[in-house]
Design brief:
The complex is a heterodimer. Chain A is built from five helices and three strands, in the order H-H-E-H-H-E-E-H. By secondary structure, chain A is α+β, with helices and mostly antiparallel strands. The longest helix of chain A is centred in the last third of the chain and has 27 residues. The relative contact order of chain A is 0.16. By secondary structure, chain B is mainly beta. Chain B is globular and about 45 Å long. Chain B starts with 10 loop residues before the first strand and ends in a 19-residue tail after the last strand. The chains are: A alpha+beta, B mainly beta.
């Protein structure tokens, strides 16, 4: 899961899409209008973000509305915290063992 | 991106050893492999290259952006599989009253691409011509319980 999140946010366009739908729900067309890339390309980016759980999609009539979901980023943050805490614990063990 | 969601990650630990010792463990390839990667290059100076190999999980490269023994260091962090994502890791060492060390480590995601104008830290063409010296390898031990993926980004 962390891999999918990292892959999704490693692309600058996708990071901008995420920012765009952070505080408001937007239809795909409006998201595409904010970028100088094709609508199919925006759809592809939205698909990657959805697979990673970073945006949710809701249908309203013929519109598909997108909004960012903060949970996966929280997961990534917890993972990073656990990773670095683990490394520092290993550093501490080594530093104290060799005194 | 999502600063509101991602509050900064800050990890701390107190170590019963002087700062000089901790700084040395963090900045010499021979010691790095004893607690972190499987193989390491660490050019101990500002602007120096870092290369960390994690067996079966790829490598991380970076540049030392701050080198101030024994008070701290900072380096950029770019995974081979995600060269567009640049993280900077800040490490601050504070002396405790009892002579120990307070370590504060914080990874920050840097905006923009690693390659291209203004951010060329991920790919140094010279690397292809001259392999880095001083690649220290971890002495074989047990599995060690390390995690499956090296971190690639964080809040900022």
């Amino acid at each position: 899961m962390v891999e999918a999140i990292v892959a999704a946010i490693s692309d600058p366009t996708r990071r901008r899409v995420l920012e765009l739908v952070r505080d408001r729900e937007l239809p795909a067309g409006e998201i595409a209008a904010a970028f100088e890339i094709s609508r199919p390309a925006v759809s592809r980016h939205l698909r990657v973000l959805r697979r990673a759980g970073l945006v949710s999609e809701r249908r309203e009539g013929r519109l598909r509305l997108y909004r960012s979901d903060p949970e996966p980023l929280g997961e990534l943050r917890r993972w990073l915290d656990a990773y670095w805490s683990g490394r520092l614990a290993a550093l501490k063990e080594l530093a104290e063992e060799e005194r | 991106m999502s600063e509101a969601v991602l509050a900064p990650v800050v990890c701390t630990v107190e170590i019963a050893a002087p700062r000089e010792r901790v700084f040395e463990l963090f900045t010499t390839p021979e010691h790095l492999v004893e607690w972190w990667p499987d193989a390491a290059t660490f050019e101990a100076r500002e602007g120096g290259r870092i290369e960390l190999e994690f067996e079966g999980r790829g490598e991380v490269t970076g540049t030392v952006t701050r080198f101030e023994p024994p008070s701290g260091l900072a380096f950029t962090w770019v995974r081979g599989v995600a060269p567009d994502v640049v993280t900077r890791v800040d490490v601050d060492l504070t002396e405790l009253e009892d002579g120990g060390t307070h370590v504060e480590l914080s990874p920050h995601r840097l905006g923009g691409r690693a390659r291209g104008p203004g951010g060329g830290v991920a790919r140094d063409p010279r690397r292809r011509l001259a392999p880095l010296p001083r690649l220290s390898r971890r002495p074989r031990r047990g599995a060690g319980g390390r995690q499956d993926l090296e971190p690639v980004m964080a809040s900022s």
